[in-house]
Amino acid sequence: LKTIFKEPSASWTKWFVVFSHQRTEIEMREIKVVHSDGLEVEIQSGAMTRLAGVSEALTGSTGIHLAVATIPAHCASSPHYHVNCESAIYVLKGKGRFVIGDNLETELTIGPGDFIYVPAEAVHQPVNDGSDDMEIIVARNTPVEIVVEVEPFKA
């Protein structure tokens, strides 16, 4: 027989799991909501700006990061790759290209509703071809990314 219940504490929620007559305490971090006026301003990559909502600094996360990036009309991020993480991207609004390859030789069309998977060390550059801002949601599997910017044809 297994029963799970919780007892609140100051900054942690304690969960207790009872197997028969043995009681085991499991501590879990507190669930946090970060409102739109409390986002963390991150570094800029080319014309792209990024605001984090789930980050190590804001929530204490250790294995995930989530941000909203904006690319102005007819602009792009710098070509780059991430040394230490995979990324998942969701295109919220805007149309453009996701340019990939060591020499940025391949262009993939992207638009609202598209999901993009980017493995670690894959050179890429999101480009907004539209006349309105492009908004993308970016998730990665590390709280702090290591980014290397590259020059086309010199990657």
Describe this structure in words.
The chain is mainly β and 155 residues long. The protein is built from 1 helix and 14 strands, in the order E-E-E-E-E-H-E-E-E-E-E-E-E-E-E. The strands form 4 sheets. Strands 4-5-6-13-8-11 form a 6-stranded antiparallel β-sheet. It has a 3-stranded antiparallel β-sheet with strand order 1-2-3, with no helix packed on it. Strand 2 and strand 3 form a beta hairpin. The longest helix has 4 residues. The chain is globular. The N and C termini lie far apart (58 Å). The N terminus is likely disordered.
- Termini separation: 58 Å
Structural class comes to mainly beta
Mean pLDDT: 85
- The neighbouring-strand order within the major sheet is 4-5-6-13-8-11
Protein traits:
mainly beta, three-stranded antiparallel β-sheet, 14 strands, globular
Protein topology:
Blueprint: E1 2-8, E2 12-19, E3 22-29, E4 40-41, E5 49-54, H1 56-59, E6 65-71, E7 80-82, E8 87-93, E9 96-100, E10 106-110, E11 115-118, E12 124-128, E13 134-140, E14 147-149
Antiparallel strand pairs: 1-2, 2-3, 4-5, 5-6, 6-13, 7-14, 8-11, 8-13, 9-10, 9-12
State the gist of this model.
This protein has one helix spanning 56-59; strands at residues 2-8, 12-19, 22-29, 40-41, 49-54, 65-71, 80-82, 87-93, 96-100, 106-110, 115-118, 124-128, 134-140, 147-149.
